[in-house]
Write a structure and sequence with these properties.
The chain is mainly α. The chain folds into two domains: 2-49; 54-160, no CATH class. The chain is built from five helices and three strands. The chain has helices at residues 2-18, 23-40, 54-83, 103-115, 141-160, and strands spanning 92-97, 119-125, 128-133. It has a three-stranded antiparallel sheet with strand order 1-3-2, with helices on one face.
Length: 161
């Protein structure tokens, strides 16, 4: 089943990249997708039943909207801190406890934090994520955990867990 899911995902990506539904393009895409599925299928996700749950796609769209909004806000925040004459930064590394079970969900959260300006995922060990933050506004782990990871974690949990 996971080979079939990988094949379908590869075909969708191929069609989106080439943006052509000509017969030659579909044949080449199918051949490349079959080769990819045969070679890398054993490394693909084992539980592919999650791919057939439409609510996960709904939450993924919501997550993308939230991510873009948070990214936009973070861009303005970093620009303010860089352009301000006093340069109000208080950098530090914070330790955030995650409530995500799957490795894929943790990786997605770490990447989301890294792609947001002003934060950078440094290390991920089990359910602990270390994040370099441009302005550590509090020393309370629950509060900075919500500020750094909480904005994405609840949506990622609905998508991947």
């Amino acid at each position: 089943m996971r080979y079939l899911v990988l094949f379908i995902l590869c075909m969708i990506i191929w069609i989106l990249l080439t943006f052509s539904l000509e017969l030659n393009n579909i044949i080449v895409g199918a051949v490349v997708s079959v080769l990819t599925s045969v070679i890398f299928g054993r490394y693909f996700i084992k539980n592919t039943s999650k791919f057939f749950q439409p609510k996960r796609y709904f939450w993924f769209i919501i997550y993308l909207i939230i991510f873009l909004w948070e990214c936009l806000k973070a861009n303005f925040d970093v620009a303010y801190r860089v352009l301000h004459p006093a340069m109000p930064i208080r950098p530090g590394i914070v330790k955030v406890k995650l409530n995500l079970r799957s490795v894929t969900a943790r990786m997605m959260l770490a990447n989301s934090i890294t792609m947001t300006p002003g934060t950078l995922s440094v290390d991920l060990k089990d359910d602990i994520l270390y994040v370099h933050w441009i302005y550590v506004s509090t020393t309370d782990p629950e509060i900075y955990g919500l500020k750094v990871a909480g904005r994405f974690e609840k949506y990622i949990k609905r998508i991947f867990d």
